[in-house]
Specification:
branched-chain-amino-acid transaminase activity, 9 helices, D-amino Acid Aminotransferase, Chain A, domain 2, 284 residues, binds pyridoxal-5'-phosphate, Class-IV_PLP-Dep_Aminotrnsfr, transferase, alpha+beta
Length: 284
C-alpha cells in the first residue's frame, strides 16, 4: 500500500498530492460547520454501489441548498482518475462539499468540492462473531436525511462509550431509537421479522441492501423500534459501508437474545458480502 504521502486528492478543481490539499480557514465548514459529504467503498479498484452514493450526495447537497460544482459524469471521471492514481487495495472515497470561502464567515459562498481516498479495514470474522456492546443516548440529528459534516455529539460521546466499556452509541428520542452516529440499526424479532427505524434516520446504502436481502427470506418492517423492543428482540445489528453488518450482543448492559451473534444477522452478512463481490466482479 502506498504511504499517505503518495496519495492524491481532488481539490480546487484539480487532482493534487494529498499533502498539498489545503482549505482556507474562511471556509464555512470551518467557520460554521456548513457542509455535506458522502463515502463509498472501493474494492479491487472498483467502487461498490457507486450510483447509490452519488445520488445521496447530490440529495444531501440539495437539502442543504448547496450546488455541487461537477456533473455526475464529471464526478465519476475524477473518481476513476483518483482510484487509478492511488492504487489502494481496499479503500473508501470521501466526497466533501464545504460551504466555501465566505468573506465574513457567515454569508453564502461558492462551495468547495474535495475528494480524497483513504485505506480502511473491514471488521474481521472474530469481531463479527463476538459482536459489539452499545449504549444509548437521547439525541436526534438536525436534518437526519442529509449526510452533513456535523458529528459533534457522536465525537463528544466517545469518552463516555469507552468509560462504559461499550463500542458505540445508539441515538433515541424518548425511548424510540433511530440510528448510530455513523450506522443504521436493525433488530430481528422472535418470529424472525427484521425491523429497522424509518423516521429521523439517514437512509444508509447498506441499510437499503440489507432490507432488499432480508425481504427475500424474512418478513421486513420499516417502522418504530423502542428500547423495550430491543430488550425483547432475538438479535440486533448495525449496518454501514465500513462495517457492513455487525452483530450487537449487549445494549445498556443487557444481553440481547442469547447474548451471541445471531444466525439471521450472520446469514444477512454472508449474503451482503456475496452481493458486493458479485457487483465488483461485474464492474468493468
Ligand atoms: C448518520 C448515519 N447513519 C447511517 C450511516 C450508514 O450509511 P451507509 O450504509 O450508507 O454507510 C451513516 C454513514 O456514515 C451515517 O453517517
Amino acid at each position: 500500500m502506498p504511504s499517505s504521502s503518495k496519495l492524491h486528492a481532488y481539490i480546487h478543481g484539480k487532482i493534487q498530492p494529498l499533502q498539498d490539499a489545503y482549505l482556507h480557514v474562511s471556509d464555512l465548514s470551518v467557520q460554521r460547520g456548513y457542509g455535506v459529504f458522502d463515502f463509498f467503498k472501493v474494492q479491487d479498484g472498483k467502487p461498490v454501489f457507486l450510483d447509490d452514493y452519488l445520488q445521496r450526495f447530490y440529495e444531501s447537497a440539495r437539502l442543504m441548498d448547496m450546488a455541487v460544482p461537477l456533473s455526475e459524469k464529471k464526478l465519476k471521471e475524477v473518481i476513476a482518475q483518483l482510484i487509478q492514481l492511488n492504487q489502494l487495495p481496499l479503500s473508501g472515497v470521501k466526497m466533501i462539499l464545504t460551504g466555501g470561502y465566505s468573506p465574513n464567515g457567515y454569508d453564502l459562498a461558492a462551495p468547495n468540492l474535495i475528494m480524497m481516498q483513504q485505506g480502511f479495514s473491514l471488521p474481521n470474522r472474530a469481531t463479527v462473531e463476538e459482536g459489539i456492546k452499545i449504549i444509548t443516548h437521547e439525541y436526534v440529528r438536525e436534518i437526519p436525511v442529509a449526510k452533513t459534516i456535523n458529528y459533534t455529539v457522536g465525537i463528544r460521546l466517545q469518552k463516555e462509550i469507552k468509560a462504559q466499556g461499550a463500542d458505540d452509541v445508539l441515538y433515541h428520542q424518548q425511548g424510540t431509537v433511530t440510528e448510530f452516529p455513523r450506522c443504521n440499526f436493525f433488530i430481528v424479532k422472535q418470529d424472525n421479522t427484521v425491523v429497522t427505524p424509518a423516521k429521523d434516520v439517514l437512509l444508509g446504502i447498506t441499510r437499503k441492501r440489507t432490507l432488499e436481502l432480508a425481504s427475500q427470506q424474512y418478513p421486513v418492517v420499516e417502522g418504530p423500534v423502542t428500547l423495550e423492543d430491543i430488550y425483547q428482540a432475538k438479535e440486533a445489528f448495525l449496518t454501514s459501508t465500513t462495517k457492513r453488518i455487525l452483530p450487537i450482543v449487549q445494549v445498556n448492559g443487557r444481553a440481547i437474545g442469547d447474548g451471541k451473534s445471531g444466525t439471521v444477522t450472520l446469514d444477512l452478512l454472508d449474503r451482503l458480502i456475496a452481493q458486493e463481490e458479485q457487483q465488483v466482479s461485474r464492474t468493468a
